[in-house]
Structures are given as C-alpha cells and as structure tokens.
C-alpha cells in the first residue's frame, strides 16, 4: 500500500465543478494533467552495473556451468533487457490512460507542499505484470519442448502470477477491505499447489542434526501447507511493507537480485542435473521480474511520478513465492524476506484487530522541514523513525533498502554456517 490518498468519485466531481481551469472534455483533461517526470536513468544504470558485474562473473567465470544452460540464461536475459525498455516506454503512455479514468492518488507524505497537490497516476504495476507475462510466455519457445517435464509447472506458475495480477488490479479499482486482501493470494496459489510435483522434505541445520537424528526430514502434506502459507505471506508482505516512494519496488529489486545470485551459486556448486534445472527455472522468471521492476523503479523512486498500486505488490510477491517454491529454496526465500517478517510481526496487533488500525499507517510529515516522524503504528517504517530519529522520505527508504540488502547477505552467511 503506497503513501497515497485516492480521490473519491465525489471529490473528483466537486473538483471538476469548482476548478474553472478544467473542462469536462477529455482533451482539456489531458492538457490539465502535465506529463510525468522522465525516468531516473542514471540511478538505474548504477544499480545495473553494481549487480551485473558479480552476476555475470559467477555465471561465466567463477563456476563451470554448461554452455547450454548459459545459453538459455542469456536468451532469457536478452528478452528481459528488451522488456526493460518496453516497460519504460509504456509507463508514460499508461499513465495518461489511468489519469483519464481518474485512477490517481495524492502523495500523503508530501501533504502541505506543492508536490502533495499533484495527481500521481495509480496502478502502474499493471504495465510491469503485462510485459512480464508476455516475456515469460515467449521464452517457452526458446527453452521448453512439448514433452518437457517443467512445462506444466512453468505454466502453473504463470497462471498463479496472472491470477494475482488480476486480483491486484481489481483491488486497486474496487478498494477491497483488508480482511479480504489477506485471503486473495490463497486463490491465486491454487494452480501452483495443484501442479507441484517436487520434494516435500527439508534439510536439517547442522547444529540440530544430533538432536533430530536426521539430515533430511520429509514433511509430506505439512510441506504443502507451508508452501500455501508462504505464497500468502510473500504476496501480502510486500503490500504491507510500503508507504514510501520506491519502497515496494526497491525491496523487490533487492530480493530478486539476491535470488539470482543464490540460483547461480547453487547451479555452479551442484552436480545434480535436476537440481540445476530447478534453479535455472527460477532464473527464467526472476530475470524478467528484475528487469521490468527496474523500469518501474526509474519512475517510482523518490520523488515518485507514478504509484505502483496493489497490482504490483501482489504480482511481485506471488512471483517471488512461485520461484522459491518451484526452485526448491522456499526456506532460503523466507530468510530473504526477514525485514518483511519483522514488519508483519510489528503489524500483527493492528492487522488482527487487537489495536485500532487506521486506514493509512504512515509516519507524520512536517511540510516546513520536509522530515518524517515515527508514529505508534506497528510498521517497520515507523520503527526505523522511532529508532533513528526524523528523516527525509528518500533517506528513510534508502535506509530500509540497505537493511533489506543486509538481511539478504545474512541469509547467504547462515546457509554457509548451518546447511553446508
């Protein structure tokens, strides 16, 4: 949930009646709403360079990965790169259409300033989701045959992602109540759970092996239940850990980058072809997610010129849940989501009605200083402000994304210490 306040139909009608500079004709509406700010391409270039160097070093130099697998990953990367530019070009076009349909919001964290009166296009995550699905479907032509064992699970994954994208857009349009939002991912996860044919066992951490007596424990149907809950959690956790320009997309970019590095490391260290294919499967979905999200990030980073909407948060959360489950590293994925777990634990009293939950659990904003102040609402955003003091929105978001990156690095360390 972004830091926005949606304009109701009554408010829109009132604004139209009282603002003499507006006309009811679509042409005048387009002139009244200025184009969105250009993308922050310099920031995206730096992020890409920072991640691409270690990623391609591991892929082509550090590990001896089969040329056929490298070829598939490169084809997918090429499609993802094309998806980045397509998404970046489509967002301004889609922005004009959503503004025309009065699908916009006002940035609450800038209330009382000129920026707080600007109409910000809403639900631009639909562009990312649409481009992602087209890329994922086209990639099947290059990598899967009709009798491929992975084709059923791949299409089931796309069905779950598409289902969640649709439900997210419905939520943006209809403004679904919180309690309904919490159960929406359970419906979208059904195609994934029905098609899953992988293992149902977990690796016991080394310090616990003497007490359990096993290195690998088969959980059976309990593992399927865990997968279901993981899909619900990942989808909602991105939506709940929000409220700042760039936070929803930024955390997705950080986690997706960590997932890609993890997959390459597992492929390079393994001799099992089936295990390698499972992690390659994850790469084929995460690379398009990362590329299209970076395109959206170029518009959504502070100060944001578009809002991603619940469409994007649901889509991104379900995509990462899918790759974690079908890539057989769902336990690792949960550690990548450590900040989201902490945010959920802080939010439990309000989410479940033990403490009054306002509609927007956002920090306070002082228009004179431009700084945010922590409130007593149970979110990681407010916790950071109470812990470290007042901050600007950009600085706070950057701090939270650094914390996300630290959590991902911690995950790699824990895997080395506990599982290897």
From TrEMBL:
<keyword id="KW-0472">Membrane</keyword>
<keyword id="KW-0328">Glycosyltransferase</keyword>
<dbReference type="Pfam" id="PF00953">
    <property type="entry name" value="Glycos_transf_4"/>
</dbReference>
<keyword id="KW-0256">Endoplasmic reticulum</keyword>
<comment type="function">
    <text>UDP-N-acetylglucosamine--dolichyl-phosphate N-acetylglucosaminephosphotransferase that operates in the biosynthetic pathway of dolichol-linked oligosaccharides, the glycan precursors employed in protein asparagine (N)-glycosylation. The assembly of dolichol-linked oligosaccharides begins on the cytosolic side of the endoplasmic reticulum membrane and finishes in its lumen. The sequential addition of sugars to dolichol pyrophosphate produces dolichol-linked oligosaccharides containing fourteen sugars, including two GlcNAcs, nine mannoses and three glucoses.</text>
</comment>
<dbReference type="GO" id="GO:0003975">
    <property type="term" value="F:UDP-N-acetylglucosamine-dolichyl-phosphate N-acetylglucosaminephosphotransferase activity"/>
</dbReference>
<feature type="transmembrane region" description="Helical">
    <location>
        <begin position="124"/>
        <end position="144"/>
    </location>
</feature>
<feature type="transmembrane region" description="Helical">
    <location>
        <begin position="314"/>
        <end position="338"/>
    </location>
</feature>
<keyword id="KW-1133">Transmembrane helix</keyword>
<protein>
    <recommendedName>
        <fullName>UDP-N-acetylglucosamine--dolichyl-phosphate N-acetylglucosaminephosphotransferase</fullName>
        <ecNumber>2.7.8.15</ecNumber>
    </recommendedName>
</protein>
<feature type="transmembrane region" description="Helical">
    <location>
        <begin position="151"/>
        <end position="170"/>
    </location>
</feature>
<feature type="transmembrane region" description="Helical">
    <location>
        <begin position="182"/>
        <end position="204"/>
    </location>
</feature>
<dbReference type="InterPro" id="IPR033895">
    <property type="entry name" value="GPT"/>
</dbReference>
<dbReference type="GO" id="GO:0005789">
    <property type="term" value="C:endoplasmic reticulum membrane"/>
</dbReference>
<dbReference type="InterPro" id="IPR000715">
    <property type="entry name" value="Glycosyl_transferase_4"/>
</dbReference>
<dbReference type="GO" id="GO:0006488">
    <property type="term" value="P:dolichol-linked oligosaccharide biosynthetic process"/>
</dbReference>
<keyword id="KW-0808">Transferase</keyword>
<feature type="transmembrane region" description="Helical">
    <location>
        <begin position="396"/>
        <end position="415"/>
    </location>
</feature>
<feature type="region of interest" description="Disordered">
    <location>
        <begin position="1"/>
        <end position="35"/>
    </location>
</feature>
<feature type="transmembrane region" description="Helical">
    <location>
        <begin position="250"/>
        <end position="269"/>
    </location>
</feature>
<feature type="transmembrane region" description="Helical">
    <location>
        <begin position="281"/>
        <end position="302"/>
    </location>
</feature>
<feature type="transmembrane region" description="Helical">
    <location>
        <begin position="43"/>
        <end position="61"/>
    </location>
</feature>
<comment type="similarity">
    <text>Belongs to the glycosyltransferase 4 family.</text>
</comment>
<dbReference type="GO" id="GO:0016757">
    <property type="term" value="F:glycosyltransferase activity"/>
</dbReference>
<feature type="transmembrane region" description="Helical">
    <location>
        <begin position="73"/>
        <end position="91"/>
    </location>
</feature>
<dbReference type="GO" id="GO:0046872">
    <property type="term" value="F:metal ion binding"/>
</dbReference>
<feature type="compositionally biased region" description="Low complexity">
    <location>
        <begin position="9"/>
        <end position="18"/>
    </location>
</feature>
<comment type="pathway">
    <text>Protein modification; protein glycosylation.</text>
</comment>
<keyword id="KW-0812">Transmembrane</keyword>
<feature type="transmembrane region" description="Helical">
    <location>
        <begin position="225"/>
        <end position="244"/>
    </location>
</feature>
<keyword id="KW-0460">Magnesium</keyword>
<keyword id="KW-0479">Metal-binding</keyword>
């Amino acid at each position: 949930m972004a830091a926005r306040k949606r304009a109701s139909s009554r408010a829109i009608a009132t604004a139209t009646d009282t603002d003499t500079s507006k006309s009811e004709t679509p042409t005048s509406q387009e002139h009244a709403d200025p184009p969105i700010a250009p993308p922050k391409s310099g920031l995206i270039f730096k992020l890409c360079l920072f991640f691409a160097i270690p990623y391609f070093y591991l892929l082509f130099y550090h590990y001896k990965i089969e040329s056929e697998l490298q070829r598939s990953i490169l084809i997918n990367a090429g499609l993802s790169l094309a998806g980045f530019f397509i998404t970046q070009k489509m967002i301004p076009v889609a922005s004009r259409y959503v503004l025309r349909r009065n699908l916009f919001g006002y940035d609450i964290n800038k209330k009382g300033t000129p920026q707080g009166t600007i109409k910000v296009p809403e639900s631009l995550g639909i562009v990312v989701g649409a481009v992602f699905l087209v890329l994922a479907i086209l990639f099947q032509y290059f990598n899967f045959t009709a009798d491929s064992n992975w084709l059923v699970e791949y299409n089931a994954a796309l069905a779950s992602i598409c289902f969640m994208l649709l439900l997210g857009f419905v939520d943006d349009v209809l403004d679904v109540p919180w309690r309904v939002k919490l159960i929406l991912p359970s419906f979208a996860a059904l195609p994934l759970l029905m098609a899953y044919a992988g293992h149902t066992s977990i690796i016991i951490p080394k310090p616990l092996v003497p007490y359990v007596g096993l290195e690998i424990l088969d959980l059976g149907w309990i593992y399927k239940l865990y997968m279901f809950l993981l899909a619900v959690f990942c989808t909602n956790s991105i939506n709940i850990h929000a409220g700042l320009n760039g936070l929803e997309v930024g955390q997705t970019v950080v986690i997706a980058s960590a997932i890609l590095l993890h997959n390459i490391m597992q492929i390079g260290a393994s001799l099992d072809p089936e295990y390698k294919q499972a992690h390659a499967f994850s790469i084929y979905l995460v690379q398009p997610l990362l590329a299209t999200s970076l395109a959206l990030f170029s518009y959504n980073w502070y100060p944001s010129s578009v809002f991603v909407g619940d469409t994007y948060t649901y889509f991104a959360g379900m995509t990462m849940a899918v790759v974690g489950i079908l890539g057989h590293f769902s336990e690792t994925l949960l550690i990548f989501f450590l900040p989201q777990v902490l945010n959920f634990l802080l939010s439990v009293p309000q989410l479940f009605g033990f403490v009054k939950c306002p509609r927007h659990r956002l920090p306070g904003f002082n228009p004179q200083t431009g700084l945010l102040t922590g409130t007593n609402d149970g979110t990681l955003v407010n916790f950071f402000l109470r812990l470290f003091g007042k901050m600007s929105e950009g600085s706070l978001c950057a701090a939270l994304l650094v914390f996300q990156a630290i959590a991902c690095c911690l995950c790699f360390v824990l895997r080395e210490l506990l599982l290897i």
